[in-house]
Specification:
The complex is a heterodimer.
Chain A (H helix, E strand, L loop, with lengths): L1 H31 L6 H17 L5 H29 L8 H24 L13 E4 L2 E4 H23 L1 H11 L1 H6 L4 H26 L7 H15 L4 H21 L7 H13 L9
Antiparallel strand pairs in A: 1-2
Helix pairs in contact in A: 1-5, 1-6, 1-8, 1-9, 1-10, 2-3, 2-4, 2-8, 2-9, 3-4, 3-8, 5-6, 5-8, 6-8, 9-10
Chain B lengths: L1 H5 L1 H19 L2 H26 L7 H18 L4 H23 L6 H19 L1 H4 L5 E2 L8 H24 L1 H11 L1 H6 L4 H27 L1 E2 L1 H4 L2 H14 L5 H16 L6 H16 L3 H10 L3
Antiparallel strand pairs in B: 1-2
Helix pairs in contact in B: 2-8, 3-8, 3-11, 3-13, 3-14, 4-5, 4-6, 4-11, 5-11, 8-9, 8-11, 9-11, 13-14, 13-16, 14-16
Classes of the chains: A mainly alpha, B mainly alpha.
Amino acid sequence: MTLVMQILVDGFVISSLYALGAIGFTIIFGVSGVLNLAHGGILVVAAMVAWYMGANLGLGVYPACLVGILAGIVMAYLTYYLVVSPIERSRRIPAEEKEIFILTATLLWGIMIQEMLAYIFSSNPISVPRLVPGITNVFGVHTPTNELAIGVVSWLVILGLWFFVNKTRFGKAILAASINPRGVSLLGFELSSIHRLVWGLYGLLAGLAGVLLATFIGASPTNVGDLTASAFIIVILGGLGSVPGSLLAAYIIGFIETLTAYLSDPSYRTLPALFMLIIVIYLRPQGLFGRR
Amino acid sequence: MSKFLRSYRFWITVVAIAFMAILPIKASGYILGVLTMAYYFGVFAMSWDLLFGYAGEVNFGPTFLIGLGAYGAGMLNSYTPLPMWLCVIAGAAIAVVGGVALALPALRLRGPYFGLMTLVAVLLLLQFIVIFAGSTGGEIGLAVPDVLSISTDANYYYALVFMLISGGILFAVSRSPLGLILQATGQDPIAAQAMGFNITKHKLFAFCLSAFFSGLAGALMIFYLGTASVNTVVDLAVAIQIIIAAVLGGRRTIIGGALGAIFLIVAGELLRPIGELSNFVVATVALLVLLFVPDGFLGAVLKRRAGL
């Protein structure tokens, strides 16, 4: 019984964090068609800046985390202005090849971020102190309160995002741009300003996910590739560009991984999820909720 | 034919091959070792270019094919009494079979999904190798009993001749009617289909050819190195390097892939003294080329000559 509860609690926390990390990734794809393979890099920058502010400059946990999130937003805009936008506007790259150029370029950008972080801060894993101290007893399972807080914060942010996208003017413009970009520009919205807004939003989500990750299991520049891959897998499973799909997929992957880790061997952790992904792609290539 | 013999593209090729062939007289063993690796990488990049540049399919998992070839050959060599050359051929065959198993269903998919499948295939292969560490050597690597040669010069020539032959075949295919059909398929699949070409069949053939040379190169490379390890033949970082090499050299040129690979490996070696930052510098240079010279080295030269 405790084991079941433990799997439920751990699975919930990990899945919520996965969801938060993957949601920005999927919004960027949905609105501007960009798969940002520097995603993991942005998460780790936020985590390491928050750590550096707290451990070396003596900032409190909360201000340090805020600076970390800010760093995430800055990195997202740097990615957009230095890498993505020049390719999108380039006349020398044929339109049908822009996709592979953006993929390759963001991948390179991710490597640059990783190497720079390793050079400045070293590759040692870091962690940020818990946001909420203490331990809570959840139906017999001793769980650090911080983990529960991560789950709650993730869900508040996801709900806030839902509210923003469905109820506010700018949010609706984003939603419309993901459905029909030409239609939105005909209605008088500047597509490029929508893209700027989305990249900012993405930076915020990725920064927050990075900081929370650092308070939960820590981070290191060597995680950049893995973090990108896990977001990528979740987004493919859920359907490229679909937010509800990504949420569901984050929970499926999170729970399958936790179950595997508890019931068999932690080293098999990612295997069942990969198998399931292959089956899903063969049967339903657009993912669970994707549009073709 | 006589026109071809007088074209200076032909003479540049002859001079370049002659230069590479006489290099062992002067160059040190260290330089030859670096170039040997670069030549194998060149074959990886050229095989990748056939698929991307011509068939328009992004294969994010060239290392799936390379890894199958390398580990297939390596494990046969370790656990069976088969001679080395048979293991190499078997490795290439395993890569082709694995490639077909992957491509046959995946080629039905449109858009980015083919690329995603190939990416997942690499991750899966990686997991398998680590989990069955008992027979694959896991993360430490698999030591193979046989080696190609213990002489640096001989290894250099094996790699050089292999690269030249594979490059020649891949280049010839890209210039053949089949290459034209592939190019048409890549640029406008519907129009190509309307002209009566079975695009899936042609793409599958391109994929098999790419798998064959990738697998062969992977198998030869581990017999040169003496070990098969995840870091040299399967890891995503290797796949990324191959893609970067092909894009740097110039897509849709085949030969550009080899140039890009030699540049990338040599640059990586030259930058070794600056330590940790060498990867950063290589990635930065690659990104700048991508942004400012999107056709790659060879592509830019060819375009200028064509007066575009």
